[in-house]
Every structure is written in structure tokens, then in C-alpha cells.
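Intended use. Records like the one below are meant for learning the mapping from a protein sequence to its folded structure. Do not use them to infer anything beyond what is encoded.
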Amino acid sequence: MSSAQALPAEAPGLRILAVGESAVLAECTEPGRFLPLYTRMRHAAVPGVVDLVPAEVTLLVAFDPAVTTRARIIEAVEAAAAQSSTVHGIVVDVRTRRHAVVDIAVRYDGPDVGDVVRSLGLAGIDELIELHTQQLWTAAFLGFAPGFAYLRGEHDRLDLPRRATPRTTVPAGAVALAAGYCGIYPRPSPGGWHVIGTTPAPLWDAAREPASLLEPGSRVRFHRAG
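Structure written out for the chain above:
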């Protein structure tokens, strides 16, 4: 079997690819469906599944061929997809976190605040803060750097493209917006997102269990630091 061979899928908005001998890749063609699919697969605890790796519109399901078959994994993925609705309709499993919602304080002192206000046609920084804090954000997936979560909001009022010129260094704790997401830089790194503020929240701590403050499905509420 080839490394990425398309397989039949009965669930609408779903395309399944065979990856090697022990994985399938589920592609969700409908926006917002991949996170519910991941959440339901995680909760289902399907026998033989050894890893679930969510990305922006895909979910990689790795399995143990000694325990299960690809056909059974596909059936489980299709069943989970059939039950999935939208990213905001999923109840997060709070057993993996002490709180159902992670509260993060932000000082809205980012260098791009003025540009963001102008680009979005907002009345001022207070409106930007209101739009950022008065909605619930959901961690869609992690990537780019350990602990960096791509957060989706409940509306697209803060949706704007990446900066035309990326920065060579963005400081740790920078809260930024781009491409429909909000993200927090866990450590200093290059970046092309619009930085609107900073937070002292420790997004990644190797000595902590789990090391990442956020995981796919985590819900986040921002508030203005005093």
C-alpha cells in the first residue's frame, strides 16, 4: 500500500488516506470539524489506537496492527465524524485539566495594537480588548513551537492576515493574532503575527505534568491584566 492512498469514506466532509502500514489520515473538508473529530476519537478510546495527532484540518490516527485493523480504525473515524458538529459544540473533557476554562491575563501593550485597530476599523484599543476578552477561545491544535496553541474564537471580528514583514524575534508571552487565530509565544522566536499584548502565563514548562498549559480542545478566556 502506498504511503498516502485515498480510501473510501462514507461520512460527509471527510476524506481518509492510508499512511504507511499503521496509520490513517482523516481530512475534514468542512471548517471546524477536525477538532470535534479529535475530541470524539480521544474519548472513544478505540482499541489499538496508539496516537492521535491533530492539525489544522487533519487528524492522523496511528494504530497497532497487532491489535486492530485499518478497516476497524476507519469505521471508528467515520462513526466519530458522523457525530461531530462544530468546534464550539464540543464539551471538553475537564478531567485532563483542573479547570474547564483556562483564564489568561493579558497586558495589552503589544507593538501592533495601533495597526490592528486601524486595519480592523475599530474605534480604539478598548474595542479591541473587548472583542478579544468577550469571547471564548478554543485550542484547535498545537504546533510551531512546544506549547504554542492555535486558538479559534467564536467570531471572526479579529481575523487579519499575517504581518507583511515577520519579526526576527518575538518575546516569550507575546499574545498575537493572525489568519483567524490567536496564539501565545511560549519562548522567544521569529514570528509574523500581530502582537497585541503580553502575558506571564507559563505556556510550556518541561518540569510540569503536562508540560503544555494548553492542549487541543482546551478552552481559554482572556482578561485584561490590572
